[in-house]
Amino acid sequence: MTSAPASVVAVGTDHLADAVEAQAVPVVRVDWRPPMPGTEGDLACVAADPLRKDANERALAAVLDVQAMLVDVAPAGELLGLAPGDFLHAGPPIAWADASGPLRGALMGAAALEGVVDDPEAAVVLFESGSGVSLDPCHHHRAVGPMAGVVSASMWMYVLEDPATGRRTFCSLNEGLGKVLRYGAYAPEVLERLRWMSAVLGPLLRDAVRATGPVDVTGILTQMLQMGDEAHNRNRAGTLMLLRDLAPAMVASGHEPAKVADALRFIGGNDHFFLNLAMPACKLMLDAARDIEGSTMVVAMSRNGTDFGIQLAGTGDQWFTGPAQVADGLYLGDYGPDDANPDIGDSAITETAGIGGFAMATAPAIVRFVGGSVPDALATTRRMHEITLGENPRWTIPVLDFQGTATGIDVTRVCRTGILPQINTGMAGKVAGVGQVGAGLVTPPAEVFPAALSELAHRTRARPR
User: Fold this and answer.
1) CATH assignment of 44-64+290-462, given 3.90.1700.10, 3.30.70.1320, 3.30.460.90, 2.60.120.260?
2) Fewer CB within 10 Å, N side or C side of the chain?
3) pLDDT per residue over 440-451, tens digit each?
4) pTM for this one?
5) Residue 155, class by beta-carbon neighbours within 10 Å (0-12 exposed, 13-18 middle, 19+ buried)?
């Protein structure tokens, strides 16, 4: 009597599995990868930390419990205490000497906007000397900024609040695409648009929000994910839902009808307008998980055009940085890879919270903007579940049978699998003043995760037993 052939378990490479299957032997394939080099000891240490399981459960629960409400719109000087020479920027801390072209261009334009200099070009000497100016990350002020992320005193900002805790986060208003300050452009028309936003758009939005009452940004995010947005590079449905909520109050605000019409036209013609609400909503969520000892959850991923940095729930405000990467994607006009600056912006806070590049499966149209294919988008969304602590039951993916978005990037899982978080992003020109040159896909530099894991292991070993 001949017995049936035993099945073979093939781990990792497919070559052995293919050869065995060719002999009609059943094969069970296991997708296994070795951990990132040099992380084995730190992984073992952190895995054995008795605080880790409970800390991560509390961190994930804190993130998922947040309800982000838009409660006000006001100038940055009023909200954050910025003086005309104070400037915030995206990403981890950086000095002018190390700043990339788009960050320099945005700072130059903001200096002229605030009247610190008469001409943007004159700001170079000012920032080189450091006299009378200050640079600080948005994240250090409970704020986030897309691309260069530059915020100055006269710029108006959204105020988002979690009603259960009263915690707040902030973000500037969205200028649109192309030659705009956040992409490093500072031409006269760029500054003129910003002045209009401060003089007309900001006050109009403030009055509308105050008249309407808090706007449920978390609820809009829930709906827009069902409508083909992933809330990083596609915000069309979110922008239209915001306009639906605020337009009646804008019309009834008492502002000049022509100005109201201009504002409605500007918002309706800017599909990215809602991005600057999605970002602070995600930051509000992730800030709820900060300072939980033993947690391995990533609470910030951010770039300043030179460095890419992450922060963890269990390591306070410490940044772990590596060189920002150039995105792989689609370019505008005659621009190409040689024109693109390395990745920049706080907008990766969306991926950190589980949307954006993590939710590409819900927005197949995004591949026409950032590159790739629809099968790639589906595979990416599935793959992100391998490096996260859980799912968000509010934010679901229809095409994946309404599976919740992958939430809570776990630094140990990234190091153990070698899978890096996927980010979809805009691309700024590397020369100050150029503006946007394309959009694409990018991942963090791999070394930031072992560095963060090493610090967690150090703290675990140093903790009294």
Assistant:
1) 3.90.1700.10
2) N
3) 999 999 999 999
4) 0.92
5) buried
